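In this section we walk through a basic example: taking a raw amino acid sequence and producing a predicted 3D structure, encoded as discrete structure tokens. The instruction is simple. Fold the sequence below.
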Amino acid sequence: MIPVRAYWRLLSEYLRPQRRRVVLLSALLVTGIAFQAINPQLIRGFLDRASGDADLSVLLSLAGGFMVLAVGHQVLTVISTYLAEQVGWTATNEMRARLADHVLHLDMGFHKTTNPGSLIERIDGDVTTMSNFFSKFMIYIVANLILILTVLALLWREAVEVGIGLTLFAVGAMLMMFRVQKFAMPWWKKVRARSAEFHGFVAEQLGGTEDVRANGAVPYMMFRFTTIVRAWLPEAVRARMGFAALWGTGIVSYIVGMGLVFWLGWRMVGDGRLTIGSVYLIFHYTDMIRHPMDQIREQMGDLQKAGAGIERVQELFARTSNLDTTGRLRLPEGPLSLAFENLSFAYEDDASTGELVLQDVDVAIGADRVVGVLGRTGSGKSTLARLLTRLYDPIEGNLRVGGVSLRDADIDDLRSRVGMVTQEVQLFRATVRDNMTFFDTTIADERLWEVLFDLGLGDWVAGLPDALDTVLEAGGSGLSAGQAQLLALARIFLRDPGLVILDEASSRLDPATEVLIERAVGRLLQARTGVIIAHRLATVERADDILILEGGRVVEFGERAALAADPDSRLSRLLETGMEDVLA
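The resulting token sequence is shown next.
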């Protein structure tokens, strides 16, 4: 259960920037309460005067006043509803943005173990449950409590017995609702967790539709789908039962309250202590108590759902990155040197078993040098690239880029000065321009065209229906592997980094496209340090140095020309035999 103070902190944090809207919304609600409290008085006056000898003009004035207040209340309701939606969406969108930013800055260990679909549900679905909490909860709770207190005060003024009876009824009903509200929140939290699991599963299976169908795995996937839904159902039923209990409490309370009013009204009219107009007034005020209590009940029901969402969102906010990003040192301009100093690394899954992906790597690479990294699959080649971009930190030793330890480097500066192209290029559902610039609007189109023509993509982009404004599909659907990788190289060109990492960037291209890639890579590596990670010997022909890994250890490092000339070197034997399969 979340303490009340935590709810208040959350409201204050996200509603403070909208204080003017919140104040205006509060004023509208208070005015609406006043209209609701005054109107029954006008009707009571109309009934009492109509049963006597009142002038028609007085009756028309009372009726006109009632109509004005009734219409005014409806207008205020429309305006306050619109304003409340604005407040709610603004607050939840701000929370979504903060949560997405927080998740994007978490370490790769978190993302490796967390399903993307589940994250989407937590960032969007869980936050959506809080929309009403931000837009209406506190204001509506306070406003309706004020309305109830106002009505009770007016009832005390009309008849003390009625005031006492309905005060006890209102207090008892509120206590019952608060007790029932606590019952369902744990179940709503489980429902939100099941929802995240479900959406994560669906996103994963839809992403792999081709493989699922090709391997005849549809029945198995449907079995898993059914299993998740069956586990979800009883938890959803229990949560809904909690909501139904809250709703039933309100209905029973209303029946008890109206029965009390009819009994007291019958007695007091019989004693001559109340007029027909006063009885109507008491009846109407009692009914008015029901409406704010219904709204409070609805708000408490929404709080059950919001509370579960709040707990899950706070759990995600509480998750911290394993990377210390407090470093503020900037890397030097120009080509960047590299130094692996007795570096060892293991992924979280392997750390407990002591299995190291990289072990005692101690290599220095000068600035403006190109090093080719060779090794079997699993030898640690791609892990080197991830360490250089600081997606992970080594568990032992140190890694320096441009003479600066990556732990002390400003991480944003590091990632602007280090560029990486992988075999699996990630493209967004956005324009060609946005995919090249990563949505940076400060880069001129002239610069984009210059880069595109340098890479041999100019004619292709110019031939698209909307040129730079053509929208590409997510994942590069509709593009060849070569076109996607050339766009990825264009991104690096625009950033002008001091270190370029090519992780198997040309391992699945046709010969014609590879010629374009090779030309682009040659231009990209000019006056820059380069790390080329490949499975094929031909890919590293442009390298100045060669680094060969085996089982996470460096088994050979040196100048490519010297190693190629040395008949005892591994590189020489590989070149001699052409056994590239040993690197696969």
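Looking at the output, two observations stand out. The chain has two domains: 4-318, 338-419+531-583. The two ends are 54 Å apart (CA to CA). In the next section we compare this with other chains.
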